[in-house]
Amino acid sequence: MTVQTHRLKNGFRIVTENMPGLKSASVGIWVNAGGRHERIEQNGIAHFLEHMAFKGTLRRSSVQIAEAIEDVGGYINAYTSREMTAYYARVLADDVALALDVVSDIVLNPIFDPAEIEVERGVILSEIGQALDTPDDIIFDWLQEVSYPNQPLGRSILGPEERVSNFQKPDLSTFVSENYSANQMVLAAAGAVDHDELVRQCEEIFGDLIARNQSPVLQGNFCGGEIRQVKDLEQAHFALAFESPNYKNPDIYTAQIFSTAFGGGMSSRLFQEVREKRGLCYSIFASAGAYCDTGTMTIYSGTSGDKVAELANITMDELKRAADDMSEAEVARARAQMKAGLLMGLESPSSRAERLARMMTIWDRIPSLDEIVAQIDGVTTETVRNFAGSMSSGAPAAMALYGPVADAPAVEKLQARLVA
């Protein structure tokens, strides 16, 4: 498999990986524009724009967009995150040019028909309502908000209903002009792809696109705190967060290995102690997420109201204990899980294209798999213990609670438990 890159004169980047033996390919455009690139009055516009891209272009109606891809047996989709918006398609080898034509059309030529804006507004408001009715979804928005209060990074990607209810065509066009420039885009493709042919096609489609300087994002400042909503639900939802490394910090690998050993699978400490030994919950996990300038170590569990206090206290006790006695065997197992997950995930062209786009956005190059594996293998038990210790030594913590959570301890008491 060969990774190839090319940069147009306007800064538009193309990265491909041919995967011999495959008969299909994934092709997409990743734009360095997400929720944290919004001003407060724009909150939710990046996600709204993603929806509107499929509602008609200068060349195709919404039906024609769907039919163009599905007529050849492919699929097309998009997503919005806090730092990126992606538009991508999966097709057979003979239809790669078509996929790029359709995906580029929805990114470059949306018409933002006012009637379609009203239709999609209703869809998005329903999506917001569904999220609010899904406790194990909304709690992570609340956790983000309390982790990064009064900052773009802490705002919901969907946006508040009052903002979404008022967006109009000029709002969408403004966000595009501010963020959808040539130097903020990456075309990534993997599978049965021809690099030279994709470069030629991109020259025609994107060669005249203007490059602009994007406004810098506000530095993420993890503050911590607590948000608690008591409600008569079947489950008490408990989510905890600490600051962790950004994705350019080499310590990100330590954070990811710690999260795997601590709460990443059935053999992890949290799963074994909280669920298997004590039966306090059905699910519990830890994960390490990263942004360009900060990161978040998240711990989540759903339990009953009469067990949430015990679960929260034991979670903190386990975190403190990990700083002292995380074993070589646990770290080795987590390294193996992380490497296996990385390599297994890359058997899919869609996963490969996603990785290519993210690496180009982060590093402006594609680190080899050997380089990543070496970073993983370089994480030691000592560095993992030290990382756990950094969280159990009085670092700020954020907590979100939802459901029958009146008896759960305050976040300050949980933090005090770490340093006792």
Give an overview of the whole structure.
This protein is an alpha+beta fold and 420 residues long. It contains 16 helices and eleven strands. It has helices at 45-52, 62-70, 96-108, 114-132, 135-147, 161-164, 169-179, 195-206, 252-263, 269-277, 308-325, 328-345, 349-363, 369-377, 381-391, 411-419; strands at 2-7, 13-18, 24-31, 75-80, 85-92, 185-191, 225-230, 236-244, 283-290, 295-303, 397-403. α12 packs antiparallel against α14 (369-377). The radius of gyration is 23 Å and the shape is globular. The N and C termini lie far apart (53 Å).
What is the molecular shape? Answer: globular
- List SSEs in N-to-C order: EEEHHEEHHHHHEHEEHHEEHHHHHEH
Mean pLDDT: 96
Number of helical runs?
16
Helix content: 40-55%
* Strand runs, count: 11
Alpha-beta classification: alpha+beta
Question: Secondary-structure map with pairings?
Answer:
Blueprint: E1 2-7, E2 13-18, E3 24-31, H1 45-52, H2 62-70, E4 75-80, E5 85-92, H3 96-108, H4 114-132, H5 135-147, H6 161-164, H7 169-179, E6 185-191, H8 195-206, E7 225-230, E8 236-244, H9 252-263, H10 269-277, E9 283-290, E10 295-303, H11 308-325, H12 328-345, H13 349-363, H14 369-377, H15 381-391, E11 397-403, H16 411-419
Parallel strand pairs: 2-6, 7-11
Antiparallel strand pairs: 1-2, 3-5, 3-6, 4-5, 8-10, 8-11, 9-10
Helix pairs in contact: 1-7, 9-12, 9-15, 10-11, 11-15, 11-16, 12-14
